[in-house]
Amino acid sequence: MIEQYAVAMATDARLLKRGSESLIGIASGLIADGELNNKEIQFLSLWLSENQALATTWPGEVIYKRVREVLSDGVITAEERDYLQKSLAELVGGAFSDDGAIASGATDLPIDQSAVVQIPSLAFCFTGQFLFGTRTACEQTVAQRGGRICSVSKKLDFLVVGELSSRDWKYSSFGTKIESAMKLKQDGVPLAIVTEAQWVRAL
Question: What pTM, to 2 d.p., does this model score?
Answer without folding.
Answer: 0.54
